[in-house]
Design a protein that fits this description.
The protein is of the alpha/beta class. It has 13 helices and 15 strands. It starts with a strand and ends with a helix.
Length: 362
């Protein structure tokens, strides 16, 4: 688990336990002096002694760039409004790991790169944790190679299955075993760890069964680890979220993906036109209903999130929802609409329009 903490500068508690290669913006703001009497009364007392209002977030590293960017703007706005007590704490446990802590009532918000699953719903139910499901963006899962790879420009879904299915373990170890015209070179695979929603989605979309994958590959729930692996290995083939490719596109090469209708590169345009299938997917935050009701800082943060998401989702390299999607998310949040529209399972080939129809009928 990777833990990160954002807090106004001067609190002495800004923590970063792992570098995140340009996708983590470092928030520097000035604490406001509330008045001479308050200043004198606090002389000699550490900043930590002041009671902090904490928004606790865990989950997907794929969704993290969005939440981090919004949290940075939120805390800057809070500091400008003379509020230096709010702290946003992050952990990057992957979607599955994040739902575990969320459904145990330990976090306020869970970042998720897939919908909540039935077993996670059951855990939430056992612990009396109700949740509000808020779609926030679309992703185009991106298949990448080293920039000096001069033989692969595209790959079919069937070839992805051949490379990643459980039966490939220890057997499909060369590039020319995936496509005969590719060279007789070692095939080095980099992909999401098993607590990752990206792992769940990718395996279902390519192999046909969620979590069905070979085990002999470099795995991580942190997309930055995968970025570094691929950029340093000319024989690499990997996959991760679009924003991580966009932030490192000068060090990586994306492959066009062919699902039977021609090879298509991942982009905002190909997702919006429903051409990049089956690797486009919605992303979410799940909000603890009780936190939203009882913690004003959580409600305030989520409202700020939904207001800023259209711009900041695009800024970090993902695909914003249409305006109607954010409007529906605000309506559901303000009404405290608990539950999920996905029935505890992932839906492949979902389009932006289909997501809006699901939201509208919830």
């Amino acid at each position: 688990m990777i833990k990160l903490c954002l807090k106004p500068e001067g609190t002495g508690e800004q923590v970063m336990n792992q570098k995140t290669d340009g996708l983590v913006s470092r928030l520097g703001v000035l604490a406001f002096i509330v008045g001479m009497a308050a200043m004198l009364s606090s002389c000699g007392k550490p900043a930590e002694s002041r009671q902090a209002q904490v928004v606790k977030i865990d989950g997907s590293s794929t969704v993290y760039p969005i939440t981090n960017a919004i949290a940075a703007e939120y805390q800057a706005a809070q500091t400008k409004a003379n509020n230096d007590k709010i702290k946003v704490e992050f952990a990057l446990s992957g979607t599955g790991g994040g739902f575990k802590t969320f459904c145990e009532g330990l976090t306020d918000i869970s970042n998720a790169s897939r919908p909540i699953l039935k077993q996670e719903m059951a855990l939430c139910n056992r612990n009396n944790v109700r949740y509000i499901e808020l779609p926030i963006a679309f992703d185009a899962l991106t298949v990448v190679v080293h920039p000096e790879n001069n033989w692969a420009k595209d790959i079919t879904v069937e070839e992805l299955r051949k490379a990643w299915e459980p039966a490939a373990e220890g057997k499909i170890t060369k590039w020319n075993q995936v496509r005969s015209s590719w060279p007789d070179r070692p095939l080095k695979l980099y992909g999401a760890g098993k607590d990752s929603g990206t792992f769940d989605y990718f395996t279902e979309a390519t192999v046909g069964t969620s979590k069905a994958s070979r085990n002999d590959y470099t795995a991580s729930e942190d997309d930055n680890v995968l970025v570094q692996g691929v950029r340093q290995d000319v024989n690499a083939l990997g996959y991760f979220g679009l924003a991580y490719y966009e932030a490192n596109s000068n060090q990586l090469k994306a492959l066009a993906v062919d699902s039977g209708k021609g090879a298509v590169l991942p982009s905002r345009q190909t997702v919006e036109k429903t051409r990049y299938q089956p690797l486009s997917r919605p992303m979410f935050i799940y909000v603890n209903y009780q936190s939203a009701q009882n913690k004003p800082e959580v409600r305030d943060f989520v409202e700020f999130f939904l207001e800023k998401a259209p711009t900041l989702v695009d800024d970090v390299g993902y695909i914003p929802l249409p305006d109607e999607g954010y409007h529906l998310a605000k309506v559901h949040f303000n009404r405290g609409k608990v539950g999920t529209v996905f029935g505890g399972q992932t839906q492949l080939n979902l389009t932006l329009g289909e997501l809006l129809r699901k939201q509208a009928t919830f």
